Amino acid sequence: MGYKTKEWRNAMRVKVDYNYMMARSLGERGIKDSELRALKGKAEEAFEYVAANRGKDELYMGWTELPYNQDEIVADIIATAKQVRKKFKYFVVLGIGGSALGPIMAFNALKHLHYNELPPKKRGGPKFYVEDNVDPVRMQALLDVIVPEETCFNVISKSGATSETMAQFLIISDILEKRGVNLTDNMILTTDASRGNLIKIDEKFGGKFKKYVLPDGVGGRFSELCPVGLLPAAVLGIDIKGMLAGAAYMDGLCSKPSISRNPALACAALQYVTMLQGKNINVLMPYSDNLKLMADWYCQLWAESLGKAVDYAGNKVNAGTTPVKSLGVTDQHSQVQLYIEGPYDKVITFISVEKYGTEMPIAHGLEDIPDVGFLGGHTMQELIQAENKATAYALMRAGRMNYTIVMPEVNAFTLGQLMFLLEMQTAYTGALLNINTFNQPGVENGKKATFALLGKKGYEAQKKEMDEAPALEDKYTV
Ligand code: PA5
Predict the structure, then answer these.
(1) What is the pLDDT of residues 101-110, one digit of tens each?
(2) Does any ligand 1 atom lie closer than 6 A to the CB of residue 102?
(3) Contact indicator for 196, 161 with CB cutoff of 8 Å
(4) Is 393 in contact with 339 (CB distance < 8 Å)?
(5) Is the pLDDT at 49 greater than 70, yes or no?
């Protein structure tokens, strides 16, 4: 509720520090002020493109309005979540890609890191699982720890035609029916308003499922702030109004067409300039276990949005840079050696936290062993922040571009800001590249090939083509 006062909102403002991208810090290897100035016109065009098309369903830009147009839905979600929390011991999301990564990320960010292991009173809500794969071992593992009759399954699929989610749906429906449970009592569907198979399934059940709409103009990877993410978050007791307020606040911060006054446009410009220099790896490295899965969510957002073969003019561009997830400080002991001394092909985005959710003093001891003794009397927050600063500095000294998104705290409001910042950054970068940021033809092709392999009607020609493809040869198998 703190987000209701202006002072608190300002104190919680997420900022971007890009000093270590610039020539002033990096010398020859940095971006010159003049390069950003040269981009001014193009950045303004990208800004205008996004501003002019906000909310347009036909362009899949409905996500920009989610912070503003969901009052009724939010009230309904909060009421439903209350019932679910009372009635069920387990809450399981069945979904994949954009229908799963957001709920997992928000759960990781805003709930206890060992939430499911907490005693029920401390947890306050049902145990929570997101099943975003069709590995049979994982499905069995889930079934080993839940009681299906006591579980609310939230089936999330815009199309209702995603093989992974629908296979899970069939397995779970069968189990529930065999145990005499009405599916409509234990399942909530989140899907397209009128198209798609979940609607057909609901019709078969007389429209009795509780349903939420994944709005027309909102693609999977931009859907965390609609019922896809809001329902699971509310079931977990997360302040979803706070998340939306944070997104709206960041939207306000991104309302200027200027790189120096719009954080998302600044990030997009930095990414774009470095792409042109051939830096094709984009690392996201939060220094927070709560934000570890933010990097997974971001990787999908970035990869599916910007990895495109052609631009709007029909030119073959094969656009995009490869997102890599990393975790501070853990990956300092695994990847950072490469970042500092390997090829100059990366831009590293850190996410720093100014105030962690808890404090952990480091006890004094072993003062006679200098490698250890100096730690006593400090805190873990000091240690992680020092390592974050030191890594950014060492990278800069080695001529490696990096910038930092600074989160005052990790809470619903700042998480909403961070999501919206990264979504806007992606939309602006796509506009700078003149590509369609919001489709995913490559993913669709993979889905179709799976349909063909499993003998789905209508995909016979593709099956034939795949069967006739040159046989895999033994000489290339070791
Ligand atoms: O971002 C996207 O659009 C995709 O990742 C989809 O979310 C994913 O393929 C799942 O699709 P659906 O929600 O139709 O099951």
Answers:
(1) 999 999 999 9
(2) no
(3) yes
(4) no
(5) yes
Q: How many helices (H) and strands (E) does the chain have?
A: 21, 10
In this prediction, what percent of the chain has a pLDDT beyond 90?
A: 89
- Which residue has the least CA distance to atom 8 on ligand 1? 97
Active-site annotation holds for 304: yes
Q: In this structure, are strands 322-325 and 281-286 parallel, antiparallel, or unpaired?
A: parallel
- One of 65, 131, 224, 304 is an active-site residue; which one? 304
Report CA Rg, the chain.
24
CA of 98 to the centre of ligand 1 (A): 5
Closest CA to 159 of 199, 202, 130: 199
Query: Catalytic residue at 150?
Result: no
**CB within 8 A of 388, min separation 6: which ones?**
287, 328, 329, 350, 352
Q: What is the mean pLDDT of residues 434-453?
A: 86
Catalytic residue among 333, 457, 468, 475: 333
* 233 confidence band (pLDDT: 50, 70, 90): very high
* Whether the CB of 100 sits within 6 Å of ligand 1: no
**Residue matched to tokens 């896809």:** 228
Confidence band, pLDDT 50/70/90 cuts, at residue 85: very high
Domains annotated on the chain, with CATH = 6-57+242-433 (3.40.50.10490), 63-238 (3.40.50.10490)
Residue 1 — very low, low, confident or very high, per pLDDT cuts 50/70/90?
A: low
Which atom of ligand 1 is the closest one to the Cα of 99?
A: 7
Distance (angstroms) between ligand 1 centre and the Cα of 20 equals: 36
Cα–Cα distance measured from residue 128 to residue 138, given in angstroms and rounded to the nearest whole number: 15
Share of the chain above pLDDT 70, in %: 100
**Which atom, in ligand 1's list, is nearest to the CA of 159?**
14
Residue 291 has pLDDT above 90, yes or no: yes
Please state, in angstroms and rounded to a whole number, the distance separating the CA atoms of residues 281 and 322.
Answer: 5
- Pick the closest to residue 131 from 105, 104, 112 (CA basis): 104
Q: Is 98 helix (H, G, I), strand (E, B) or coil?
A: helix
For ligand 1, whether the C-beta of 103 sits within 6 Å is: no
Q: Mark whether 32 is an active-site residue.
A: no
Of the candidates 192, 193, 147, the residue with the CA atom closest to the CA atom of residue 172 = 147
pLDDT value at position 470?
A: 76
Given the residues 211, 447, 448, 456, the one annotated as active site: 447
